[in-house]
Amino acid sequence: MLSTTHNLSEKLPKNIDLSQAIANVTSVLDLLSKQRVNVNDNFKILYAQVKEIAAKLNIKEEISRVCRLQTARNNVPYSTEEYYQRAAYVPYLDDFCNSLKEHFESHKETVASLQHILPEFCIKTDFYSLEAALNFYEEDLSHKEVVQSEFMLWKEKWSQEKSENLPKTATSSLEKCDKTFFSNIFILLKLLAVLPVSVATVERSFSSLRRLKTYLRNTTSEIRLNGLALLSIHRDIKIRDEVLDKFASAPRNLDFVL
User: Fold this and answer.
1) Which InterPro entries match (predicted)?
2) Is the pTM of this model over 0.70?
3) Residues 184 and 226 in one domain
4) Are residues 79 and 152 in the same domain?
5) What average pLDDT does this structure show over 93-121?
């Protein structure tokens, strides 16, 4: 199960826009849904692999103790394979799919409207597909008629291009958008590009802060703490030797800002 979502978990925290993330999540959910439909065939293959591993580790094939009188739910049949399929595999698969749907359900409603601003979708739709997004971001945009005119011009611009030349993401669309001529379109694209896919980066910062701000470092100033946190969070970014040499040779009263 986790191997199916491995690429998704690697890609989501990185710099991809929300429409791209929703498309990836939908692909994973489609695959898991097919596994749920063919659960009997898939579990037989999985159970055979588990039995081989258990045999190598000298683990006996048995089921957990079953209560004779169940009050909350019916007992699972006593066949070992059927027991693990109904009591473990199917509930886990269903819960896994539901968690993905719940996590991205709110995002999907926002993106369903905003993504129509992308050249790939705008040439196939009309202005009223953006109505939900326009109502939500009304304070950030100009008058509705102005936005509609910009959308028609934006649509006309990309309808003359070949489909393979159309930008597929909000970031690539921003690069091709004239900020002065398509000011409202630029704002909507920017909103779509910066909507967070997940909170993994924020959680990582809190985890780093918990390691840095200990009782032994309770008097650490805010500037130093921010610097240490950035070094810890972005440890994959290499610091230039010139920066280290300058810091090492500088007088102690020099303010060093990361």
Assistant:
1) HATC_C_dom, IFN-induced_PKR_regulator
2) no
3) no
4) no
5) 79
